[in-house]
Specification:
Layout lengths: L1 H73 L4 H11 L10 E8 L8 E11 L12 E3 L2 E13 L5 E5 L8 E3 L3 E4 L3 E4 L7 E3 L3 E3 L3 E3 L3 E3 L3 E3 L4 E2 L11 H4 L2 H5 L8 E5 L3 E3 L2 E9 L3 E4 L2 E6 L2 E12 L1 E6 L14 E12 L9 E5 L9 E4 L5 E15 L9 E10 L3 E3 L17 E2 L2
Parallel strand pairs: 5-8, 5-26, 6-9, 6-26, 7-10, 7-27, 8-11, 9-12, 10-13, 11-14, 15-17, 16-18, 17-19, 17-20, 18-20, 19-21, 20-22, 21-23, 22-24, 22-25, 23-25, 24-25, 25-26
Antiparallel strand pairs: 1-2, 2-4, 3-4, 4-28
Helix pairs in contact: 1-2
């Protein structure tokens, strides 16, 4: 019995000690918690607010990226309003809730110069939990601690495509404007000649997105927009070089010419079929329809001197009269649209997609001349005369989707062309959309 009482006493003593220890431990934990709670709450607050900052700043970056692209794409004195409108569509309206949107069109470009467009979006975000650990931000909102969040972007203005290209490498007056009102609505002219008078303007007006000249220019009259060409520009190589071989034009031009297709003069309503025509195909009156396909003109001219010729999905190949021909042959076919009305468009797919007139580059004399005149023509597609001289007068080549490529080009009449080609099957020459650079 005594032994049992001793054991009970010992057990009670140990239980009391444990109980006292637990009480002391609780007190320590409470003290420790009291000491560390602000730190824990501050750390938690910092984590939560940092997450909010990241989300908001990511949204700001998206807004500034899109606004900078829109400003560069606009490229007008109205660029600032365009940038602000885009930022507002992302929920960052300038002057509202502490949002500030600023833009510039003289920002430094990574590649040099100060012609880039920049947009900066900033906002103030109030702090709620981080002040517990003593962080009060770098600004205030309604007298309360806040932090400034901002994002910026820089974009470079796009380069318009080229729709008029003079390929002569050293000729004087490789491209010239002597009269009329010519508009390149959304594209540029490129003159590859290194001559000091590569581009020559004596009258009329020319409006283009840009006039780029590898050499230099002379202007003694007329109105030019932009006010001056860009000199020293890089040469644009012949975009269709090699097409002759790639599309086996030699096999087409070596075909015999049917007797019925020799020296035709059409002066009535008629529908023509693709094939070989030689010693001139002249449409002098009536209404002539060209069925879709490839028309090979061997020597002489493809001539419209009157009437109306219409064709969709058409390619007209101008080559020599008695193939195979040498560069010194005199009977290379030319285009002579000097009367009547021609409404023609190129094929939109396949081997000759986008090509309306294709002159055989085997003619390297640079003495033959193509003439396109008249105010009612619509020629949609590429007009390609890489080794011949081209005269355009009286609005002869107007169309919303036209490329004019020739050895030399003389424009004397009112012409409106553009690169609004959509599904026309034509490939752009050069050009680059506005893009972010920073």
């Amino acid at each position: 019995m005594v032994r049992l009482l001793r054991l009970l006493a010992a057990s009670w003593s140990r239980a009391a000690i444990i109980k006292e220890f637990i009480k002391a431990e609780h007190a320590n934990i409470a003290i420790l918690f009291a000491i560390t709670a602000p730190v824990l709450i501050g750390a938690l607050g910092l984590g939560m607010e940092t997450a909010y900052w990241y989300v908001d700043q990511r949204a700001e970056q998206n807004a500034s990226d899109s606004a900078a692209l829109a400003a560069a794409g606009d490229g007008t004195p109205n660029y600032g309003s365009v940038a602000s409108a885009i930022a507002a569509s992302y929920g960052f309206q300038n002057g509202v809730n502490g949002v500030v949107v600023t833009s510039s069109n003289v920002a430094p470009c990574p590649s040099g110069g100060n012609t880039c467009y920049s947009v900066n979006v900033s906002m103030k975000q109030q702090l709620f939990l981080t002040p517990v650990i003593g962080y009060s931000g770098n600004t205030t909102v309604n007298g309360k601690p806040a932090v400034t969040l901002q994002a910026s972007a820089t974009a470079q203005e796009g380069v318009p495509p080229t729709c008029v290209l003079a390929l002569a490498p050293s000729a004087a007056k490789a491209a010239s404007v002597t009269g009329g009102n010519t508009t390149l609505s959304d594209c540029s002219i490129q003159v590859d000649s290194t001559n000091g008078d590569a581009f020559d303007m004596t009258g009329g007006s020319l409006t283009a997105q840009a006039v780029n000249v590898t050499g230099n220019y002379k202007k003694s009259g007329g109105t030019l927009t932009p006010a001056a060409p860009v000199t020293g520009s890089a040469v644009i190589a012949d975009p269709y070089s090699g097409l002759y071989a790639a599309n086996s034009v030699s096999s087409l031009t070596s075909q015999s010419c049917p007797a019925a297709n020799k020296g035709l003069n059409i002066n009535t309503t008629k529908t023509l079929s693709p094939g070989v025509y030689c010693n001139t195909l002249n449409i002098s009156s009536g209404n002539v329809t060209l069925s879709p396909g490839v028309y090979i003109i061997q020597g002489g001219k493809f001539q419209v001197s009157g009437g109306t010729v219409t064709g969709s999905g058409v390619t007209i190949i101008l080559t020599c009269g008695t193939p195979p021909c040498t560069s010194s042959s005199n009977n290379w076919a030319t285009a002579d649209l000097t009367g009547g009305t021609a409404n023609l468009s190129a094929q939109t797919s396949g081997t000759w997609s986008g090509m309306l007139f294709y002159q055989d580059p085997g003619d390297t004399n640079h003495n033959d001349k193509d003439t396109i005149t008249g105010g009612g023509n619509t020629l949609e597609g590429a007009l390609y005369f890489p080794t011949q001289l081209l005269d355009i007068t009286g609005g002869g080549a107007s169309a919303p989707c036209t490329q004019i490529i020739a050895y030399t080009i003389d424009i004397t009449g009112s012409t409106t062309v553009g690169s609004n080609c959509g599904n026309a099957g034509i490939n752009e020459i050069g050009g680059q959309l506005a893009g972010l650079v920073k």
